[in-house]
What we know:
Elements: H1 2-50, H2 58-78, H3 88-102, E1 106-112, H4 120-141, E2 145-153, E3 156-163, H5 177-188, E4 192-198, E5 202-210
Parallel strand pairs: 1-2
Antiparallel strand pairs: 2-3, 3-5, 4-5
Helix pairs in contact: 1-2, 1-5, 4-5
Amino acid sequence: MHEIKELEQVYKQELLKSELEIKDQTMNNLASEIHDHIGQMLSLIKLNLSLNPAPGLSETKELVSQVIKDVRNLAHSMHTDGLSNKSIHTLIETEADRLRKTKHFAIYFESKGKIFALDNQTEIFLYRIFQECINNTMKHAHAKNIFIELNYSLPLLSIKISDDGQGFQSHSVEEGLGIRSIKHRANLIGAKLHISSEPGVGTSTYLEVDKSNQIFHGD
């Protein structure tokens, strides 16, 4: 009976791992499509606008230039190759700036303590968890404010993402791929994870990783 449960657990782990790999590959493909196709089309629009001397188009030209920049940043944030050799602090701060420019939410970013590096794979996993949390907030929370806090206290790094959205009763919500991937990624890098939510109050996700207990040592 015990062996059957272990096999079931291994099967679930492998199934989720495959789902995450497919999801990452899909994001990479989308990132390439956004960068190559949509980016190219926007560049052509910018070129056509630049050939028109009408003074009333100057603001439109500036907006198109900004959209091109935002699209490229978005593509880089989605593609795994674009995350390599960037610290989790830089990745999250850059994404916070990008989200702030959308004006859909008020974004509050705070970093405490002296910044230190983790191995690249761990930082990519942390960033993917962060992206999933933000994605869940955008899709479900109806929040007005998002709070992001990084706390460096060697050897620990903690990340807290919270919002003032509608929240949910954790025990009554079926876990989708988003929550499961957050938990699985946290488990893969040995991070402590706590997700708390309350209807009408919002949701908070807390991550803590120990630099001295890193699982990946490739970098």
